[in-house]
Amino acid sequence: QVQLVESGGGLVQAGGSLRLSCAASGLTFSSYAMGWFRQAPGKEREFVTNISRYGTRTNYANSVKGRFTISRDNAKNTVYLQMNSLKPEDTAVYYCAAGDFSGSYRYWGQGTQVTVSS
Fold it and tell me: How far separated are the first and last CA of the chain, in Å rounded?
């Protein structure tokens, strides 16, 4: 049974930082690209960033470029999202997903709440 478990969310002031983690189990982690998505209240889920199987390629949404960094540790079956210079508009539930780098995601986590206060 595949499980993706996010952690690290919370409440932070604008300008602060958070580091999200997503621990994967039940799958061959290095066989999957990993992505982070987010969904704010009343909005559709949106792409944030993704990383290729061995971390050699990444993509970022324009809204987070230069502030967020995705990384992965295949030995720990974990993908990370370092979020700096957070803004109130970054407030959302953040989800990790496993799939292919072109954008098709097969497995999803349950999400972790990130709230940025102004």
Answer: 40
